[in-house]
Design a protein that fits this description.
Number of strands: 9
Shape: globular
Number of domains: 1
Length: 259
């Protein structure tokens, strides 16, 4: 495998986690570091104004969606073989923003999911409800979306990626053979497969084996590391978007998964 080109810019890879967001950051001439941020805006403000940030979270929400969600999901899913189920279908902007209140009970959460699914069915063709997994990340999608709409120009250097698509590209455009999780528990075999790949791309094994910051899972940690390599590719002009060229949503935000 060919490691991604090193970037002269600060780059960061970001994944959502229990504590908020985990970031793996590489500054020019320095070793990568990991940190937790409660808000994505805090991360952006902590880095220099030219930093490139790859986030494992959808950017760009269309008014209506077709089969399989937005276009980027469909395009990368076909590359991933047995790993394609990790790419959730993201519904319309109206569905993502249909239920913004905090949930105090499980019953309220499921009720909100049903109501948001009704909106999703009304704004998709064929009509499709929302998966539980996708619904669970809606608050983070809204946080990222709000930040990009509040700060014009930020979307030029804060890009969407996806860990399994990133691993596919890093692995010579071959999907990973084993899952990171089995029955919601970390799968050691899948983690080792990804650590070996990331080490081959230049990340120190000691860094990959380190205990993640509190509030992030071991899989979140590796996903953020993969996102950081995508950010490095983007900064060097070597990242590939799906689709190419990226689309735009009604707010002008790009709609593409970068690898």
């Amino acid at each position: 495998m060919t490691p991604p080109a090193a970037s002269a810019a600060t780059v960061a890879g970001v994944d959502g986690c229990r504590a908020g967001w985990i970031a793996v950051i590489r500054r020019p001439g320095a070793a990568p570091e990991a940190a937790i941020f409660a808000r994505l805006a805090d991360l952006v403000d902590a880095l220099d104004p030219q930093a490139v940030i790859a986030v494992d979270m959808p950017i760009g929400l269309p008014e209506r969606v077709g089969h399989g969600g937005r276009g980027p999901e469909r395009l990368v899913r076909e590359k991933l073989g047995a790993r394609q189920s990790s790419v959730f279908s993201i519904p319309s902007r109206a569905a993502v923003f249909a239920e913004e209140a905090a949930f105090t009970t499980v019953e309220a959460w499921y009720g909100a999911h049903r109501r948001a699914s009704a909106v999703a069915r009304a704004t998709s063709e064929p009509p499709r409800a929302i998966s539980i997994q996708a619904f669970g990340i809606f608050p983070k999608i809204r946080e990222l979306d709000g930040l990009l709409r509040e700060r014009p120009g930020l979307s030029e250097r804060v890009i969407e990626s996806h860990p399994e698509a990133a691993f596919w590209r890093l692995n010579g455009e071959r999907a990973m053979q084993t899952p990171k999780k089995v029955r919601r528990k970390v799968n050691p075999e899948g983690m080792e497969e990804r650590k070996a790949l990331l080490a081959g791309c230049g990340l120190a094994r000691a860094f990959l084996d380190a205990v993640p910051p509190r509030g992030a899972g071991a899989d979140d940690y590796l996903d953020a590391a993969a996102m950081m390599l995508v950010a490095g590719r983007h900064a060097a002009g070597e990242a590939l978007p799906f689709p190419d060229p990226p689309g735009r949503d009604g707010w002008g935000l790009p709609v593409a998964i970068w690898t």
